Amino acid sequence: MNSTGGMKSLLRDTRVQRLLVANTLGSIGSGITIFSVPWLLVHRSEGNSAYRWATIATTLVLFAIMPHYGAWVDRHSRKTALLASEAWGFFATVAMAIVGLALGGFDTWQLMTIFFCGMLYYTLHYPAKFAMIQQMFDRSQFQSLVGLLEIQGQTAMMIAGGLGGWMVEHAPLWVILLLDAST
Fold it and tell me: What sign does the dihedral 96-99-100-101 (CA atoms) show?
């Protein structure tokens, strides 16, 4: 599948097309949030310290749950795992957007919570997505598809960085969160 013809064949597969479009939109939405929240956090009084502790706590929690989650994904439907991660991301993001809208903004602890929820989403989403892709596609297609997803992911993150940098200065965070949820 390393040939140009193999790549063209892969790109003609409607499953791959849908995967790339969904992945691009989702990566842009999540990426804008993941760039915006730390930016807003570190620009607060004592924000650097809050961001440090949020990162340490998040890392420790994710380090503790990942072996269990990986084993769970291996024993259950990859589609269920992927849909569960998407549902978690959607409901957590919408809930925090509603809180921010209702309260007129976010306290530092709420930004830390949004950061944790976003990182938890990433941690749940990617193993489930790659497990499902591995199940859906032939082994000969997997390496090329992962390469495509890597290119797509890097492109989406560049777009998200640019949009996030602009949006964090021009839109309240609850709007950014609703945009993220919609993707």
Answer: positive
Instruction: Count the domains in the chain.
Output: 1
**Does 112 fall in a domain?**
yes
Q: What is the mean pLDDT of the chain?
A: 90
- pLDDT tens-digit series, residues 126-153: 888 888 888 888 888 888 888 888 899 8
What integer is the mean pLDDT of 94-104?
A: 97
Q: Could you tell me which residue, 4 or 77, shows the higher pLDDT?
A: 77
- The answer to whether residue 3 is domain-embedded is no
CA distances from 41 to 86, 93, 104, 115, 162 (A): 25, 17, 16, 9, 18
Domain span at residue 103 reads: 32-42+66-182
